[in-house]
Specification:
The structure is a homodimer. By secondary structure, chain A is an alpha/beta fold. Chain A has two domains: about 150 residues, NAD(P)-binding Rossmann-like Domain (Rossmann fold, 3-Layer(aba) Sandwich); about 100 residues, ProC-like, C-terminal domain (N-(1-d-carboxylethyl)-l-norvaline Dehydrogenase, domain 2). Chain A has ten helices and eight strands. In chain A, strands 3-2-1-4-5-6-7-8 form an eight-stranded mixed beta sheet, covered by helices on one side. In chain A, helix 9 packs antiparallel against helix 10. The mean pLDDT of chain A is about 95. At the A-B interface, helix 5, helix 6, helix 7, helix 8 and helix 9 of A face helix 5, helix 6, helix 7, helix 8 and helix 9 of B.
């Protein structure tokens, strides 16, 4: 099966490399930036282009993995063909393809992708969608070769999934970043925090997050909460601390 | 070495159980609630009391592990003796003991403790403090028997450490709780989120949190950010989403 990648970012790279391990052929890689297209093409033994109009029209699958804002114009400019067009975006409905191409859908791997991180793709949940039964079945079969966790999910629900990804990954990571910044100022190594970070993540495998909660906010220990707000210099962070503490308390009461 | 525990909560229980594994004797357990005192005493083959005035005066070490707000009155009411008095609170200075007893300090294990969670104590950083060199050395030796990571840290710095614990554990856990709530409404199992939660925690072992960041906030993708705020029903959560997104963007620019 021949696949074209539109985009050569972190998600595209992880996905393309994984697919080649399972004997899919990455026929071509497009990126707006020629060097990025070349870099991914080299990794997966493919050809590169930075001209969307020169994308091959004879591939089986086209995977768009680009910034949300770049997607509409790329779809409009790409030569029409008979392949199955897919995007990998959490918050864009599948019908962004409607009117441009007959066969389309979504392949959304629910994970955070960084350069040089090895990931076990078998563990990554992949949420799929297609505008006809045959293509949904085709897409499921493709995804099951790289992951054990493949689920059909309509666009309306996928957007909520994406939202939880922002809370449980991006915002969590920002809590780590805030902590690192505070520790650096006190000359305490960030490594000190890793056992706590790991246990916090590990706990919710066996307890619900609500059962797992500890600390001053859930006890609504106003003394500690006020001391902490006084320790924080940045007014925006004071506000974030205060709002999340109140929300923990409110959630626990209800 | 004979130890008395003042308090029988989650931290006290984990610590007392661990100390008994390393041949410390838990001589007595006090808790305001008789059944809690009994429960921990039974676990560590000790005696229980719910009368602070009946605490033994001949032990070597007294570990206060109670709510911050309960600490001052317990210290004032407990019979004075020649033991080393310690508390386990992140945000209370060691001199809360001053004037009540000659030998005092802090034993602060930097971890989140839940009932029925097995923890590897050797990995838990313990931050210690004492009002004289001999007791600091004694305390260090005690802690090194249960953990490989024992550090002397003054109260002023410990309060910042505690603050980062709130961000990196309690607030992180609340991000998980918010996510669970959203997923439940969409009938998507919370387990779906676990690979993302694990990878987010795992990443910061090898990348700094700032390098590890992904998602709409760091790209400042205002379309997705606005879509997500529209999806959230609770006005407090809308505000939390918006504030953290702005803060991620601000941190990234600076």
């Amino acid at each position: 099966m021949n696949i074209v990648f539109i985009g050569a970012g972190k998600l595209a790279t992880h996905l393309a490399v994984e697919l080649t391990k399972h004997s899919f052929n990455i026929q071509q890689v497009y990126s707006r930036t020629d060097s990025s297209a070349q870099e991914l093409a080299k990794k997966v033994n493919s050809r590169a282009t930075s001209d969307i109009k020169k994308v091959d029209t004879n591939a089986d699958i086209y995977i768009f993995s680009v910034k949300d804002s770049a997607l509409p114009s790329l779809i409009a400019e790409m030569p029409v063909n008979n392949g199955l067009w897919l995007h990998t975006a959490g918050s864009i409905t599948s019908d962004i393809f409607k009117g441009h191409v007959d066969r389309y859908g979504v392949l959304y791997p629910f994970q955070t992708f960084s350069k040089d991180r090895q990931l076990n793709f078998r563990e990554i949940p992949i949420f799929i969608e297609a505008n006809n039964k045959n293509d949904l079945s085709l897409l499921e079969n493709i995804c099951l070769q790289i992951s054990d966790k493949v689920y059909a999910l309509p666009s309306e629900k996928r957007q909520y999934l994406h939202l939880t990804g922002v809370f449980a990954c991006n915002f969590v990571n920002h809590m780590y970043a805030i902590s690192q910044h505070i520790l650096e100022k006190e000359n305490i190594p960030f490594e000190t925090l890793l056992p706590l970070i790991d246990e916090t993540a590990s706990k919710v495998h066996s307890l619900s997050p609500q059962e797992a909660q500890t600390g001053p906010a859930i006890r609504y220990d106003e003394n500690v909460i006020q001391k902490h707000i006084d320790l924080i210099e940045d007014p925006d962070l004071k506000e974030i601390y205060s709002l999340i503490s109140k929300n923990i308390h409110k959630t626990n009461k209800s």
